Amino acid sequence: ELEEANRQNLPIVWKMLNQVEDDARVLGMEKEALVEDFMISYGEALGNIGFTSRELMRLSAHGLAAA
Q1: Contact present, 14 and 67 (Cβ < 8 Å)
Q2: Widest CA span of the chain, in angstroms?
Q3: What is the three-class DSSP state of 27?
Q4: CA 3 from chain center: how many Å?
């Protein structure tokens, strides 16, 4: 269930990050840094609710594939 939600939602997140890329650059923030910060927070949130490192890597890979 979470994997399916992950597959559906992460492309939306990447679309949103792409939409704010120019504004972020004006503020001195690079898109890569935004993606990195998101992935770190995303992994921490999943870890906090009990996902293993292996599961985190799999779910993160889905997200990166959508990027």
Answers
A1: yes
A2: 38
A3: coil
A4: 13
In the chain, beta strands by DSSP E: none
Q: Residues near 6 by Cβ (< 8 Å), separated by ≥ 6?
A: 59, 62, 63
Distance CA 27, CA 65 (A): 27
Q: 43-60 burial by CB neighbour count: b if 16+ within 10 A, else e?
A: beebeeeebeeeebeebb
pLDDT digits (tens, 9 = 90+) for 1-43: 778 888 888 888 889 989 999 999 999 999 889 888 988 998 8
Residue type, 4: E
Rounded Cα–Cα distance for residues 47 and 41 (Å)? 10
